[in-house]
Amino acid sequence: MKVITLVGVRKSGKTTTVTGLIREMKKRGYRVGTVKSVFCPEFSMDTKDSNTWKHREAGADLVCVKGKKETDLLLPPCADGDWYESLPVDYLLLEGEYELQVPRIICARKEEEIDERCTEDTIGIAGRIAEQIQTYKDIPVYHSVNEIGKLADLLEKQPETEFPIKSRPMLQKAAAHCQCGCDKIKGTNPQKAAVLEAHPVNTERKHIFLTGEKGIGKTTLLKKLLAAIETTPVGFVTLPYEIHGVQKGYYMHSLRPMEAYENDSPVVIRRGETKMIPVWETFETLGLAILEQSKKEPQCLAVMDELGKAEKKAIKFQEAVFSVLDSQSMVVGILQKNSGKFTEAIAGRPDVEVYEVTEENRETLYPVLLEKLQNCDPCGL
Predict the structure, then answer these.
(1) 5: helix, coil or strand?
(2) What is the pLDDT of residues 269-304, one digit of tens each?
(3) Which of the 8 DSSP states describes residue 109?
(4) 3: closest CA among 62, 77, 81, 74?
(5) Does residue 306 have a cis bond before it (omega within 30 degrees)?
(6) pTM of the full predicted structure?
(7) pLDDT in tens, 121-167
(8) Do 294 and 302 meet the contact criterion of CB atoms below 8 Å apart?
(9) What is the DSSP string of 238-261?
(10) 280 CB contacts (<8 Å, ≥6 apart)?
(11) With contact defined as beta carbons under 8 Å apart, do 194 and 314 qualify?
């Protein structure tokens, strides 16, 4: 058996390429199987409390559903693909599989998407970008329709897959959003419903985030830590602004000069005594520019003060935050407490340490966190 994976963003040509390869390989007399990866954490073909669900809950290793139109097999979750070897096919095409180390075809619309997904296993590039280039860094590019035969020839040249298959950590940006279509079922906007999950590539480092109740001293502690640093970090802080002595909201301030964007743009505007209206466009403009600036200096300390509910609609900004976490030597910031899935995903990363600030520990935390910053030595602290 030969196992091949095809990866890429939505509408890059993955499914067109996969279905084209299925038809071409079938014409050549091969048995072809496919596995579609779904990134929605809630996805399941089965439903709770159905008979088949009860079979699985009872411990069945394999559940089979026999119907008039099809027969379905329900298996437990499998990240390493160990059951692929038993499938009765000559070629197994994996659509959207990033972790298994098998020959990879990248479907893309632009070169940036190739760079984000390219590994030593990459054997070819396909998709919509074939209308622009024929090769990319010595990797051949194939038109998913006109050159599907050449792409099939490439698959035939691949060696038989060795089991068990090795795996690698998956970069967050490669699969940041749920793509299964559950948003259509729920009637929600996919931009709002997206769940960002982190897949760090370096778990030896530890980014530091503070959290805690409002007014407990998180910002004061962060300011104290930054004041002890001799060099200027990259990133941003969130500051309050007033009009005629009345606080009207908060604005984002870059720690480095911003040339192309106006600095100090509002991120939330106060309406009434308690209600805050987020200005998510600021995250998608100034915020993105600041994070791109951070990625250009990966060895420097990056500051993110603070992250929380206001970014709910700023999907590109959320992606960029995870990209910085994947690439930066060290990040220090603040997470709003109980602020949703975005901050939960950050806190859940194995390369993130979260410290809850309380009245009892806020003084003793300072020397502990300062030592961690100094040991990391970002920007030569």
Answers:
(1) strand
(2) 988 777 889 998 999 999 999 999 998 888 889 999
(3) S
(4) 81
(5) yes
(6) 0.52
(7) 999 999 999 999 999 999 999 999 999 999 999 999 999 999 999 98
(8) yes
(9) EEEEEETTEEEEEEEEESS--SSS
(10) 310, 311, 312, 313, 314, 317
(11) no
